[in-house]
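Support reply, case 0932

Customer input (verbatim):
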Amino acid sequence: MTPQEMERRIVRYGELKPCKTAFIDAHTPGSNQKENFTIIGAGVSESPDQHIHIRETPGFNIGAAGQPPKCRNSLHSHRTAEVFFVLKGRWRFFWGRHGTAGEVVLEEGDIFNIPTGIFRGFENIGTDYGMIMAILGGDDAGGGVIWAPQVIEDARDHGLVLGKNGKLYDSKKGQSLPDGVPPMPLLTDEELKAFPEPTTLDVVPHYVGRYWDMMALADRQPARVIGTEGMLRDRPGFEVELLGRGSIPETPYTTPSHEVLMVMRGHWKLSWQGGEAVLAPGDTCAVPPGLEHALVPSMTGEASLYRVRNTDDPAGPTHKLAA
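Our regenerated output:
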């Protein structure tokens, strides 16, 4: 593989292209400044304006959300896994029908394997622009977003209507639902009963990984974060590890799986027969199956990255909470 071919498989943090109209709450006060990024795969954006950096899906999707302080993402649910880690800032995640069932605050490097089938939202509670990176299960990311009813109602009051076809229509731009396309129906009270309301104690001990705990585990080998032997035991169609300076393979290696490298801290040199590249914090690299490669920090100091590989497990939860 030539350096040019590999560079096309690297999405640089400084070259990420945001979409500010990706979801139904794009005009809703408090949510109207967020930016959505689709890095690998089609993602779950409801807008045709969403830029996709790498379309090939390795069995999961990679995305990101960037938000200024006090900006929030509205309550929604997914049919498959949704995992976030904090790249920059401090974030509050909350969940439940009205966002009051439980919450947790995540710092930089922390990871949250959000239980499938609950309404969840998040907001930047830091003092600067923040960024969270996302891993979504499945090639099609579960077929889209399920919104809490009040989110759809609030959006309609501010000019955005979601069609049953999963596409957004903006009345502020003169758009309306096409003939034959009804609006997305609100979930009924009976349907809402299927969405659990877990408490903070139900969720945090089993679904949240703290960065410095994982870095301690990565002292001699990669810290297994999500997977059959991970600290957050789940099988959502992919596995996640955290690598630090002390857990680097001593020799080049290959894997039959797709491998996505997401740098958290430091600069890393990726080398393979044919070239090398340096990955910086926030960069995402899709290493193809079967490519022999090596990975080492290129500078002294703190170094960490998340490594994601596809598995043969279905793109769904193994620990879904009961309603």
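We compared this against your earlier run and they match. Two observations from our side: The first helix runs from residue 3 to 7. The CA atoms of residues 93 and 104 lie 5 Å apart. Please reopen the case if you see a mismatch on your end.
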